[in-house]
Amino acid sequence: MINIIRVHNYDEASDQAFALMKQYLQPGKVLGLATGSTPLGLYARMVKDHEENGTSYLEIKTFNLDEYVGLEITHPESYYAFMHRNLFDHIDILEDNVHIPCGLGEDLEEKAREYDEMIDQDPVDVQILGIGSDGHIAFNEPGTPFDSLTHITDLAESTIQDNCRFFDNDITKVPKQAVTQGIGTIMKARNIILIATGVNKAQAVKDMIDGPIDEACPASILQKHPNVTVIVDEAAGSLLA
Ligand code: F6R
Description:
Blueprint: E1 2-6, H1 10-22, E2 30-33, H2 40-53, E3 61-64, E4 66-68, H3 79-86, E5 98-99, H4 108-121, E6 126-129, E7 151-154, H5 157-163, E8 177-180, H6 183-187, E9 191-196, H7 202-210, E10 228-232
Parallel strand pairs: 1-10, 2-3, 2-6, 3-5, 6-9, 9-10
Antiparallel strand pairs: 4-8, 7-8
Helix pairs in contact: 1-2
């Protein structure tokens, strides 16, 4: 059953997410992290809490959801760079404890398998998720099997077009593939916190919570997870029963 927390706006959603996250900011915990605009407010609160309260990440591990294929980690649009810019560079986490799927070099499928093995050894205590307006979680677009593990995936044409603005408006520079945790990987997390704000997420939120469990809406599988909290603002929750 999905536990729903309704808030007014993005700031309150970030406050709620941080309040839930805070209980996992302890030695030995494993955090599952996402990129995108949704978790930025949460990460800002984690940085502030580290600075003001000295919350330490020295004995915390993290696993990110996804990364582009073929993009150097030094590229500002890589998820590696995103995570360092917005969180890791501002807390005392050890680089060895940071895990981001590898999208560079040979044998990416083999590296993807190894990523799942690492997660199996250090199961995620709490996974942060955003949701796409088509119901995707991580880079698992509609139609992705619910039992998928970490894998290489082609980006949807619409995603490639959307991303063009981050790559000098030059479509040839936009990554066409990504490596992503699968839906089966994400479902192994012990607890999941999904944040959805803004009216363009409203239909996806409705399909996730009120709709059938169907691969057409990847996030609908969360109805089967034992411990999911969805934080929605007024706009994203506007179509809910
Ligand atoms: C990011 C990710 C994506 C985003 C989703 C929402 O690691 O896996 O699924 O969570 O696309 O993106 P934003 O937050 O930018 O609306």
